């Protein structure tokens, strides 16, 4: 299994604002410049799924496999012979809100999907997470 994480600490947004940002899947395009759209029907809760269309790539179906309001959520994308998960956590600390995104890839073809998809996501996390905080701080 392959795992990579990125963490930031900020006072610009609260965990409630971050949760509101992510729970509003249909408006992700406003802060995520790497996607054409994200679409979800229903609630941002475990068992539900959304469709995400990255720029220059095919649409993918992503399932929410864990949600703990204002604390964390994990999404899962299934590829042929591999599974990618993204876990997003929000933790209050004396220094500010600690936000961590952890990407994992496993499966027989995990090495391939890591090169094709997951590594690009991880490489973009510093910029994307900064944009998330900036946008969430206005909510």
Number of strands: 7
Total DSSP helices: 2
The chain-level structural class is alpha+beta
The helix-strand sequence is EHEEEEEEH
Question: What would you say this structure looks like, in words?
Answer:
- It contains two helices and seven strands.
- It has helices at 15-23, 110-136, and strands spanning 2-10, 35-39, 49-54, 60-68, 72-79, 82-93, 96-106.
- Strand 6 (82-93) and strand 7 form a beta hairpin.
- The mean pLDDT is 96.
Q: Quick gist of this model?
A:
This protein is an alpha+beta fold and 139 residues long. It has helices at residues 15-23, 110-136, and strands spanning 2-10, 35-39, 49-54, 60-68, 72-79, 82-93, 96-106. A hairpin with a 3-residue loop joins strand 4 and strand 5 (72-79).
Q: Which terms summarize this structure?
A:
26% helix, 139 residues, seven-stranded antiparallel beta sheet, alpha+beta, single chain, globular, Alpha-D-Glucose-1,6-Bisphosphate, Chain A, domain 4, 7 strands
């Amino acid at each position: 299994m392959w795992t990579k994480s990125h963490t930031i600490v900020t006072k610009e947004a609260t965990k409630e604002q971050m949760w509101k940002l992510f729970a509003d899947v249909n408006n992700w395009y406003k802060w995520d410049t790497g996607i054409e759209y994200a679409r979800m029907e229903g609630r941002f809760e475990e068992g539900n799924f959304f469709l995400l269309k990255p720029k220059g790539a095919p649409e993918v179906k992503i399932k929410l496999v864990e949600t703990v309001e204002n604390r964390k959520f994990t999404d899962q994308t299934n590829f042929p012979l591999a599974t990618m998960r993204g876990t997003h956590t929000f933790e209050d600390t004396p220094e500010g809100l600690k936000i961590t995104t952890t990407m994992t890839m496993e499966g027989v073809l995990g090495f391939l999907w890591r090169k094709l998809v997951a590594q690009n996501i991880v490489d973009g996390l510093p910029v994307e997470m900064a944009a998330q905080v900036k946008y969430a701080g206005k909510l």
